Amino acid sequence: MAGGPLMVGVSLGGSVPQGVPPPATLMAAARHAEAAGYDALWCGDHVMMYSPMIEPTTLLSCFAGITERVRLGTAVYLLPLRHPVTTAKLFAGLDYVSGGRLIFGVGVGGEIPREFEACGVPVGERGGRTDEGLEIVRRLWSETGVSFEGRYYRFRDVTLAPPPTQRPHPPIWLGGRSDAALRRTARFGAGWLGYMASPRRMRESLARIRDEAGRIGRDPAAIAGGLLLFLHVGPDRERSRRRVVEDLGARYSQSFEQLADGYCAFGPAEACAERIAAFAEAGVDNLVIKFTCTPAEQLDQQAAFAEGVLPLIRPAG
Fold first, then answer.
1. What are the two backbone dihedrals, phi and then psi, of residue 225, each rounded to the nearest 5 degrees?
2. pTM of this structure
3. In angstroms, what CA-CA distances link 19 with 48, 75, 109, 148, 176?
4. Average pLDDT over residues 143-148
5. DSSP β-ladder status, 146-149 and 154-158
């Protein structure tokens, strides 16, 4: 996926300050996204968040049943909160029923320690559990009779049937900005998904990931550069900026007044396209758009982006 035309997806069903959108709203947004030319549907993951979230395999399975073309991705799944054998089974099934459309995006989490406590996982073990979990998931998706003896997980002779449709396994993407996250991407990732990052940060992080990939014998060009971008389309730039600041402030329970200009996109279609172009020049070839709007405005935002921004950021056809 790296190095090709700009791929654009939309994130649905994540943390929404106004509450969980009704199922009919989510399904309508998914159908519209496929018809309007988006390339993927994504959703986030938290067991506990400041506002409600839907469990990702549940939501993406629903999307799989009402779409045919779009990819289905997690941005990102908190792997250390679950046992990796169970995770591998769940997502193998999702890839199977979707006809091979899964992108498995993984993160370590940790910004909400109480969800780790609730799941019985020490938050300080999240990195090690993620590393072991990724190795386990990858092997279970591509091998039979798998045994594993690690610090956190141990099992013998496990085979998943049916396996994922994609061979040797669905693409694994990694989120996170720490040094450990970048090294993890170089080792396991088909892509890196940046988050709250400037174009400069994206360029520098992708360079570090690809340098490390080359050092360990992987093809650096095979690692895609992704970005989760918060965005609001509107004719009035300042009003759109306020919507971004207010939405993210409620979503994450902190001020975004000083962060919106560096990390988000807002305003008329031309302004959004210009901002996206800066990220593309920094190496981003996959966008995950999270519209900062109410559930009732989701379809309007998707349509405004598809009609006004998409033609400006990628060639026709």
1. -110, 110
2. 0.95
3. 13, 19, 22, 41, 26
4. 98
5. antiparallel
